[in-house]
Amino acid sequence: MRVLLADDEPVILRGLKKLISWDELGLHIVGEAQDGYELRQLIPECSPDLIISDISMPGLSGIDIIKELHEQGRPIKVIFISAYQEFAYAQQAVQYGALDYLVKPVSKPHLESVLRRAVDMIREENEEERTKERLDHYERKHRTVTISEYLDSLMDGDQRAANELTRMGAVPLSRYTSICLIEIDDEMGGESHWAERERKLVHFALNNIMKETLDSCDNCLMFVKDGRYGILVQFEHPEEPRRLIGNLHEQITSFLKLKLSAGIGQTVSGIELADASYRSALKALQSKYFTGLNQIINAEELEQGAVTDEIPVISELQEEIIKALCSQNKKLLEEMTDRLRRGVIRQAKGNKVLAVTSMYNTVLALEQELTQFGIPSRFSRRAESSLLDRLTSHATFAGAMDELIAIIQHMFEQLNGKLANKEVAELTKVKAYIAEHFAENITLESIAAIIYMNPYYFSSFFKKHTGKNFKQVLTEERMKHAIGLLLTTDLMIYEIAEAVGYNNARHFSDMFKKLYGKLPQEYRQSARAEQGAE
Hints:
The strands form two sheets. The protein has a five-stranded parallel β-sheet, with helices on both faces. The chain has four domains: about 130 residues, 3-Layer(aba) Sandwich (Rossmann fold), CATH 3.40.50.2300; about 130 residues, Alpha-Beta Plaits, CATH 3.30.70.270; about 110 residues; about 110 residues, Arc Repressor Mutant, subunit A, CATH 1.10.10. By secondary structure, the chain is an alpha/beta fold. The radius of gyration is 47 Å and the shape is rod-shaped. The chain is about 60% helix and about 10% strand.
């Protein structure tokens, strides 16, 4: 314990220091004063637990000093020493809380007895103070824990929690309430790249900055729920939550160099509706997968910006991408891929799982179609990691979509290589078949089956290499043979129609005229007239 000695006689000070063994009593002399003014100056500098002072000194008396200590409420014990046993001094000393009043010359046993009593009193009072501090700490901690528990229940819709928070005076009663949620972006989209110790340090620092920033706000309560930091804000002005979160976001990103996203829930009238605001804040925060990281997302602004027109059917977009791949139409592929991106976003409606599932199913659908070209299912069956895990690991939709686009581009290049080697042979086979079987009922499906190709692919494939569609080439082949029959035989028109693959003579005549500008009979007569003239 720290002791300060004061006496205007140096011999008394030396005598006091030598009179007893201060260390054995657990006391340490930290300063000496030779008048009242010096004593006053040393008190804040030395922070003594005990003062032993002459009651009558130049400048300020011991009574003046103890009176100041009494008025300041400082719990410093004081023992007075005087050359005179004056009742008035003793009475004043006791009035202001002096521990004892000793008359010079001071005996060693008497001084030791008083000091032991002083030590016991100081220890007892210190213990009481520590006990009180512990009780206050536990009470504050219990209140904090209780408030946190009520807030957690409140977010789940427990109306009793709202009543209890109001009863405790935990939040001021304001017109509006909003829940704001904060989440570290570095921990999203997969496993954290931090070690456990680093993660704890980051969260400790983040928790401290949030508390320091929010301590000055009497309209906020901070809580943690499901690993996210939440703030209940009571306010009168609509812009208050955005201003508060904006300031907090700036503080954290500036001091901790962290990327984090914040979701501001919808404004509700009163804390009893806080669960609705919490759900909208959670939805806003989850939308960061689509909107991007390290942003403040307002649920109400998100709702206003929602697109309400028709959502594209993903399966139809997949078919269009397949057509673009098979026709090797790069421009169409880029257009359909972009439409797929927008379609997935709108179909998912803020749900990451739905978005990832759509992208995953797209790859499966494309791979299944490409197997007919001898291209194996490489991406969905890669041994080192599953496609679903890789798509899920991306923190944002943009990152997952980039991987999907890279996969589709690789498929495009694979197919290009396959088609370059076999397309010439396949086209020759198709043309030979048409020339031999033109009179039969040839359909797009039947001709595509000859080279084991999907009708959609075949249609694109055929036009790419001939510049004409399949029907047009078949018609030209039939009409070429029809002209031969018109010029070299006397078969009736309906017989010629049947001979070249038409069951309906009228339809045959219409197609013939469309191609040559004359009906079959007119063409025959005109041709024979020219031959007769020759």
